[in-house]
Amino acid sequence: MRIRTLRLMRFGAFQDRELDLASEGGSFHVVHGHNEAGKTTALRAITALLYGFPERTPDAHLFAPR
Fold first, then answer.
1. Beta strands in 1-66 (DSSP E)
2. Can you tell me the distance from the alpha carbon of 31 to that of 52, in angstroms, rounded to the nearest whole number?
């Protein structure tokens, strides 16, 4: 399985953001950015997608769970 696009509609501090991971060449991606840019939040979103959302999550502080 490959994740080509990560759409963060309402997760953590993200709202309507998209991370494009599609590539023409290899399949290795490095995500980098400044401190507090959201790299760890994006990783938690991928983990929640693959393994399920925990009952209590620190990423529901701006948006109420549905």
1. 5-11, 14-20
2. 22
The single-letter DSSP state of residue 59 is: G
Q: What is the pLDDT along the chain (66 residues), one digit of tens a residue?
A: 788 889 988 888 888 999 888 877 767 888 899 998 889 989 988 998 899 887 777 776 677 666
Contact, 8 vs 59, CB < 8 A?
Answer: no
How deeply is 30 buried, as exposed, middle or buried, from its count of CB atoms within 10 A (0-12, 13-18, 19+)?
A: exposed
Query: Where do we find the tokens 């023409």?
Result: 24
Cα(36)–Cα(6) distance, integer angstroms: 18
Which amino acid, 44?
A: R
| pLDDT on residue 34 | 95
